[in-house]
Structure formats: C-alpha cells, structure tokens
Amino acid sequence: MAARWLQAITTFGFVGHLRPAPGTWGTAAGLALLWAVERFAGFGPLVAATAVITALGFWAVARELRDRPGEDPSEIVIDEVAGIGVALIFPAAGFWLRDMSMVWPGPVAAFLFFRLFDIWKPWLVGRADRRGDAAGVMLDDLWAGLFAGICTVIAAGLWHGFIR
Q1: Which of 59, 65, 111 is nearest to 88 (CA)?
Q2: CB-based contacts of 89, cutoff 8 Å, min separation 6
Q3: Which phi-psi region, left, alpha or beta, contains residue 99 (left: φ > 0; alpha: ψ -120 to 50)?
Q4: Spacing of C-alpha 123 from chain mean position
Q5: Which tens digits make up the pLDDT trace of 67-85?
Q6: Phi/psi of residue 38, each to 5°?
C-alpha cells in the first residue's frame, strides 16, 4: 500500500506512465494544475504549491530510488512538475505585480523553455543530472525551471518592450 502511494507521488498520479515522452506529459499535467492554482487561488498559493510539490518530490524520489542508486526512471515526473512550477512563478509574479491572473502566452512560453532546458541540459542542469543520485533527479529540473522562468520574463520584456 505504501509503495503504491509512493509511486502515485513520483509519477504524479501515474501520469508518468503515459507514452511517448512521459516527461512532457508530466510537465503538461503540472502546468495544467499549477496554472489553475494561480488562476483560481492566486500567486501566493502557486508559490506554496510549488514548494510543497518540490519538498514532496525530494522526499518521494529519495525513497523510491533508495535501492536503485544512479537511476532516473522516465516514469518519475514529479521533478518535471516541480520544475514547471518554478518556471511559472516568474511570469505569474509579473502578472501579480499588475494585479492580474496569468494569461497565455506566459505559461506556454514557460512550458516550451522548460522542456528545452530539461532536454538540452546546459550548464547547471546537466551538472545536476550527472550527480547520479535522487537529489540530482530533482535538481536538474529545478535548474531547468529557473532558467525557463528567466527566459520567459526576458522574452516577455522583448516582446512588450521592443517588438510591439
């Protein structure tokens, strides 16, 4: 029973078992949930939900992989959910400062940038991925989320400041 709950957490409600591209499915499911949290509850609850998902992810992934050091099974997608949460905080903060709920294309840009950094794994993302431990499973996606969030804000600034 406990193992089933652990699997439900690490696969984000078993979304991680969807094929092909379970990481993309996990990211999309996380985006849908966290965008809804921001839309209906606000910026603060988005930050809180991201923090809870991240903490739960570190705990659950460490438990799930304790007997399998060095593994990063593709069905584990709680890390993608935490990462997209970090990425969404950036555009959501911009909208929150303007007293608005987040609207597209902010979340869509965050999703695309996040998947780019999660797949490409540049610099700190790749370094975290190469750790070969449970913390690395989570950290690479948190770094990807940070970079995606920054790029989303830069893209919005370019679009609204220079292109339009």
Answers
A1: 111
A2: 46, 47, 50, 149
A3: left
A4: 18
A5: 887 889 999 999 999 999 9
A6: -65, -40
